[in-house]
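Milestone 3.1: sequence recovery, worked example.
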């Protein structure tokens, strides 16, 4: 795994030690960041089920102001921290939180609050990439119920999933605006309903 573009371009990242973790491929990351390129500069980015942290580090490399990495695994959180150190990313630009993604969203404070590093919420971009075998619906329902406090007005929730997995077109106050398929993977883009 490597960083594709931006400030840390070409840096190689440490890979997950287990085959249970499926990192987002370089090609799919490139597609993702081609789509969000106009939104990334200065963005607050949330990387849910962060794994190695490659997606969030790519966001920082391309100009995101702050990335919060969330993963339930202590080993994956340690890997994210190692990859942040490898790229020499300033501590103020990121936060690594070890907790279930669903629990993190339920505990996150509403619009106008600040996170543990005094960063204002909500996020401009949220990337959610759980195991393809996971049930996505509980998190999508929680996110949809709280979307107005989790996303900026023009913010995006991007969900990576297997291309055959059917996700809802709407959940609470979010609607799917786009699906991109590449190989066995797909990206579903959700935004606040009008």
């Amino acid at each position: 795994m490597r960083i594709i573009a931006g400030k840390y371009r070409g840096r190689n990242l440490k890979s997950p030690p287990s085959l249970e973790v499926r990192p987002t491929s370089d090609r799919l990351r490139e597609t993702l960041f081609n789509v969000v390129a106009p939104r990334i500069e200065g963005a607050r980015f949330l990387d849910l089920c962060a794994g190695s942290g490659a997606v969030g580090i790519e966001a920082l490399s391309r100009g995101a102001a702050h990335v919060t990495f969330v993963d339930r695994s202590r080993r994956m959180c340690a890997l994210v921290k190692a990859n942040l150190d490898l790229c020499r990313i300033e501590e103020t630009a990121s936060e690594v939180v070890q907790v279930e993604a669903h629990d993190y969203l339920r505990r996150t404070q509403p619009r106008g609050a600040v996170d543990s590093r005094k960063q204002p919420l909500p996020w401009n971009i949220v990337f959610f990439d759980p195991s393809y075998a996971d049930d996505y619906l509980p998190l999508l329902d929680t996110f949809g119920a709280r979307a107005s406090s989790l996303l900026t007005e023009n913010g995006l929730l991007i969900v990576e999933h297997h291309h055959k997995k059917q996700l809802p077109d709407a959940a609470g106050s979010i609607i799917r605006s786009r699906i991109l398929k590449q190989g066995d993977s797909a990206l579903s883009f959700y935004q606040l309903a009008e």
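The chain has five helices and eight strands. The two ends are 38 Å apart (CA to CA).
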